[in-house]
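Supplementary Note 3. Input sequence used for the single-chain structure prediction.
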Amino acid sequence: MSHRSHLVSGVALSVFLLPTAGLADENVINYLNTGYNAFNANQSGTGNAIDPAQQYGDNNSANVTQQGDYNLVTFQQGLDANTPVYGNAIDFFQSGTENNGNILQLGENNRASILQEMDGNTAQITQYGLGGDVEVGQTGFYNQTTVHQDGDFDIVRTNVFGDENTVEIHQVDFANDSPNMIDTSTEGEFNYTRIYQETADGAMGHSFEMNQMGYGNTVEITQLQGGNTGMVFQDSAEGSITLLQDGYDNYASISQYGIGNIAAIEQIGDGGNTTIQQY
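The predicted structure, written as discrete structure tokens, is reproduced below.
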């Protein structure tokens, strides 16, 4: 088994690590760059890692493909926690077993995308700032998605196919009054989805749309403050939806198709409106 470690710092970078005799297993890339740079990496083998990778400044891009086992990517875009930047983009594709993708983006108008195939995958994305855009796609079993966004006009889209997967999305906006949006889809059995949205008092509300298909799926949603909108469609048997909206002028729409489904809705505050349909 070979072990390669690469420390890279420069203007622009394209890295292709292919399954040859010299570059097969346990390849490691450490990467640091600043401003208007493109990072491209292709790793194939066992135990590959891009950890840590950092791009500082504006308009950076990163594209990573890992095909094999025990892959790891940890990537940060942004100058530091106190200095916002803008226009960075990250795209990960991981195919194999026990893949792990971690993204931290600081600043405005950043975009992050993770696509994972096979089983035991973990995707974790954190964005701080205005206009964040996240997309996660997972196919397989026992996968886990965690997204945290703190800012305005943020968007999350997730598509999960398989059984016993977990999706957790956390959106907050305490500084301004602009809404965030979630669109999530899950297909399979015994999947769990949890959504938490909170905004500043008196601000515009957040929204989410959720579709679940399969058996024994569970949804838990919390929306705090006013003007939030939540829509859930569940085509399932033995499915469960729990929704809490605490504030004013919130709206919830729940549709469940199948046998043995449960919906529990609680609205606290004035002007709430709920529609529940079970077929």
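Residues 1-129 form one domain. The chain has two domains: 1-129, 171-279.
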